[in-house]
Amino acid sequence: MPRARQSRQRRRLSLVGALVLVLLPISLVACSAAEPTSPALPDGLVTSIQQGRMDVEARQLVVRVENTTAAPVTVEHLAFTAPALEGELAYDDPFELSAGEAIAIRIDIPESRCDVPSAPGTVELAVVTGAGSATGTLTPDDPFDTLVRLNNADCLAESVAAVAEITMPEHLRSTGSGTDRRAIIDVQVTPVTSGSASMLLEQVPNTTLLGNEAGAEWPLGIEVAAGGEPFTIELPVAPARCDAHAIADDKRGTIMAFDITTSDGRAGRIDRPSGDTLKAELYAYYGERCGLQ
């Protein structure tokens, strides 16, 4: 082989070798920089969401975590997210679950998003077990459709607010005394000053303590439109029953609920709690009317 050709081949081999030496560290760096795969959550962690009556009033969501594995698990981070909620519901106070143990975590609920359809949420967990740390997401059970109900209630309240404000009075209006005493709750309805929204106030159901003096509930059938004049709804109230334990055990007896359908297609129930003064006066009226005092 001529010397010139051999020289050219040696130069090509030298260049290839140099290129390999340059690329090899780059590939090693790329491999070393790859993110390690996080271990999966242990099988047997189960989550669900729900709300009790007091959780609804406190605007909290209960995220229940159950450890059905045979070993203890420490949960270091928990976060619930759903498309129809603004932001995440995070809980970062670590807790340990023994084998077979469950815990209910209460987290404040952010505002709902009414521009997206309600869809299932996810629970993100970061845990530590005997095998090390693990992270992952679970789809929680929602046996009572809590997420849909919560979103519907928030969005109905938003639609109602676009029409009018519904306000409970500070005081109970009443006449007479003793078992002959009669009382009325004067609910103020104040439409917003402008807009095209409207709603139908259908009825107010009985509470555990109070009913309509004239029947089982308060039928309304009142159309309300934005830009209308303020008006008052008179709810004549009578004890729904006469039971001394009813007041002692009461949780929602002085909360008046309004069944409403709005012009944007939403329908449901809006709660209006009594303030402290009105609640005390309603309790006193209940006791006086029932002859319990």
Describe this structure in words.
This protein is about 25% helix and about 40% strand. It has two domains: about 100 residues, Sandwich (Immunoglobulin-like); about 130 residues, Immunoglobulin-like. The protein is of the alpha+beta class and about 290 residues long. The protein is flat. The strands form four sheets. Strands 3, 4, 5, 7 and 8 form a five-stranded antiparallel sheet that branches. Strands 9, 10, 11, 13 and 15 form a five-stranded antiparallel sheet that branches. The N terminus is likely disordered. The protein contains five helices and 17 strands. The longest helix has about 30 residues. It starts with a helix and ends with a helix. This is Lipoprotein. It comes from Agromyces ramosus.
Mean pLDDT figure: 88
Provide the helix percentage: 10-25%
Give the number of domains.
2
Q: N-to-C SSE series? A: HEHEEEEEEEHEEEEEEEHEEH
Largest sheet: 5 strands, antiparallel
Overall spatial form: flat
Distance from N terminus to C terminus (CA atoms, Å) equals 123 Å
Query: Number of DSSP strands?
Result: 17
- Low-pLDDT segments: 2-9, 11-34
Number of helices: 5
CATH architecture of the largest domain: Sandwich
Q: Work out the strand percent.
A: 35-45%
The radius of gyration over CA amounts to 32 Å
CATH topology of the largest domain: the name is Immunoglobulin-like
Q: CATH class of the largest domain, please? A: Mainly Beta
Protein name: Lipoprotein
